[in-house]
Design brief:
By secondary structure, the protein is an alpha/beta fold. Helix content is 26%, strand content 28%. Bound molecules: S-adenosylmethionine (SAM). S-adenosylmethionine binds next to loops.
């Protein structure tokens, strides 16, 4: 089976509501991508995209209502909290967090990051989408979608492998950020700051009071040693007494998360939400 790519948002919105059929269709990206406001179409698009290290870009509006509320307990009401939201995908959950903190009158500055936020597109009958490191993320061959990972759509994966094999070099026609319009607006208004950040490599020494890392430090994505490297790196980016929130949204939509505090270069457990993070032990030993 192969996925069909369409540009028409109205048709996609309609198809999105049809059980089973909806899985056969995906948005065909174009220069207008950053103006698309239709959340269900966008959410479906991100769900179907896997980046080079096989992590999904899946995210959803209001995914963290519960943990946003709990996060409030760990933020200072009197002075500016420097916040970093890691691996945000479309950034819609950062937008939710931002709006919630504003309502609650919390003073803060927010950095957001995602290693694969920026994409580079080469147009043509075969439209190719690359990341910063020149890796093909996904492509379209006419109306057919080519993606790196999907057990239910093996022909889309095969098409991806063929296109990837014969397209090592590229010169992009345009580049864009895969952020939601609401986040793009906040970036343009200097309300939110985008930084380049790779969980395994980027150093941000003792910069943040609160770091959130949701749905990226997952056992299903990375080996124990890779996770340890990332956790140590993220820990270094926290100030003394800084807070780390790590978690995963499970298949039922429940957020299994834990809050930690950095004390004397160790992370101490403060609180588990819904049984806590699946990598809690690894974090406590980092
Ligand atoms: C499942 S999404 C999480 C989105 C959002 N945090 C949420 O929970 O709804 C995972 C994101 O991690 C990003 N990512 C993958 N590898 C990364 C890395 N090495 N450093 C930073 N971000 C990475 C992907 O681009 C993807 O957007």
């Amino acid at each position: 089976m192969i996925k069909i790519a369409l540009k028409n948002i109205k048709i996609l919105s309609f198809l999105n509501k049809v059980p089973i059929i909806r899985y056969f269709f995906i948005l065909k990206i174009n220069e207008n991508f950053q103006n698309i406001q239709t959340n269900p179409v966008l959410e479906k698009f991100y769900t179907d995209i896997y980046v080079k290290n096989k992590t999904s870009k899946r995210t959803a509006n209001n995914r963290f209502t519960d943990i946003d509320k709990i996060s409030l307990r760990y933020l200072d009401k009197e002075k500016i909290n420097y916040i970093h939201d890691i691996a945000v995908s479309s950034g819609i959950t950062s937008d939710n967090f931002y709006e919630y903190l504003k309502i609650k009158n919390i003073p803060f500055q927010m950095d957001i990051s995602d290693k694969y936020a920026q994409i580079f597109v080469k147009k043509g009958f075969t439209t190719k989408v690359f990341d910063l490191d020149n890796h093909l993320i996904f492509a379209y061959w006419g109306a057919f979608f080519a993606g790196d990972k999907n057990i239910f759509f093996p022909l889309s994966v095969l098409l991806y492998k063929i296109i990837e094999k014969y397209n090592k070099k590229y010169d992009a026609d345009y580049a864009l950020y895969l952020f939601h319009p609401s986040i793009l607006k906040k970036i343009a208004d200097n309300k939110i700051n985008v930084i380049e950040y790779d969980i395994f490599q980027t150093e941000r020494n003792k910069k943040y009071d609160f770091v959130r890392s949701m749905n990226i430090l997952n056992k299903g994505y990375f080996s124990k040693s890779k996770l340890l490297t990332a956790v140590t790196n993220i820990k270094d980016s926290l100030k003394e007494n800084g807070i780390l929130l790590v978690g995963r949204t499970n298949s039922k939509g429940i957020n299994n998360a834990s809050f930690f505090k950095k004390i004397a270069n160790k992370l101490i457990l403060l609180e588990d939400v819904n049984n806590g993070s699946e990598i809690k032990d690894l974090i406590l030993n980092a």
